[in-house]
């Protein structure tokens, strides 16, 4: 656990952006824009804006994918607003999976703290990078690339993931392909053209 704390502290120092002001705690009562939330008035900022306790407990893995992601993004942890960082906890029950997905707004660093996770990503050249990670192992997922995680242990596995954005975004491949409102004829046409000799 000490290695995880040191790693995440180092990542915070390395990835922090130069700011004109010390911080911009997100005003969650205001709408979120492309650059994040508006800054809360400094007189309203408290130490609690810089502390997040939501990663202490395991997430609920009694679902179809047997996995839970507990985020500490700007919407949950307003202190990260504008700092170019965020973190989440990943809980995977045995046979749990985080399906193929991408974060259009951030790179991701995953640190396994319990169990074993099979993780991988696909480059834009369609090369696959796949590795079984054990406790203490770290893997990087470059911004915008498809990636996944699968519990490869017979016990619960836990990882913490750090992002290079306070709002990394999420697009799950299955939903993008099959849960959209694109007319079927448009989907079928390019596919049928690819099958021509």
TrEMBL record:
Keyword presence, Disulfide bond: yes
Binding-site residues, Mn(2+): 101, 103, 108, 147
SUPFAM superfamilies given in the database record: RmlC-like cupins
The protein, known as: Germin-like protein
Keyword Signal in annotation: yes
Annotated GO CC locations: apoplast
Main localisation: secreted
Binding positions for oxalate per the UniProt entry: 103, 108
InterPro entries with a match to the protein in the record: Cupin_1 (IPR006045), Germin (IPR001929), Germin_Mn-BS (IPR019780), RmlC-like_jellyroll (IPR014710), RmlC_Cupin_sf (IPR011051)
Organism the protein comes from: Escallonia herrerae
Family to which this protein belongs: Belongs to the germin family.
Localization per Swiss-Prot or TrEMBL: Secreted, Extracellular space, Apoplast
Disulfide bonds: 24-39
Keywords: Apoplast, Disulfide bond, Manganese, Metal-binding, Secreted, Signal
Signal peptide: 1-18
């Amino acid at each position: 656990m000490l290695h995880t704390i040191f790693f995440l502290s180092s990542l915070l120092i390395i990835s922090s952006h130069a700011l004109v002001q010390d911080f911009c705690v997100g005003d969650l009562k205001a709408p979120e824009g492309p650059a994040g939330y508006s800054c809360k008035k400094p007189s309203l900022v408290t130490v609690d804006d810089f502390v997040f306790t939501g990663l202490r407990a395991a997430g609920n893995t009694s679902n179809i994918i047997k996995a839970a992601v507990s985020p500490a993004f700007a919407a949950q942890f307003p202190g990260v607003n504008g700092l170019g960082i965020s973190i989440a906890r990943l809980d995977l029950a045995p046979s749990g999976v985080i399906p193929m997905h991408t974060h259009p707004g951030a790179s991701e660093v995953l640190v396994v703290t319990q169990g074993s996770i099979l993780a991988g990503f696909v480059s834009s050249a369609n090369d696959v990078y796949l590795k079984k990670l054990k406790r203490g192992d770290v893997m990087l997922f470059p911004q915008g690339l498809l990636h996944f995680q699968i519990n490869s242990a017979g016990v619960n596995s836990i990882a913490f993931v750090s992002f290079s954005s306070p709002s990394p975004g999420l697009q799950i491949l299955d939903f993008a392909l099959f849960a959209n409102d694109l007319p079927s004829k448009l989907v079928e046409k390019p596919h049928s053209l690819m099958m021509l000799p």
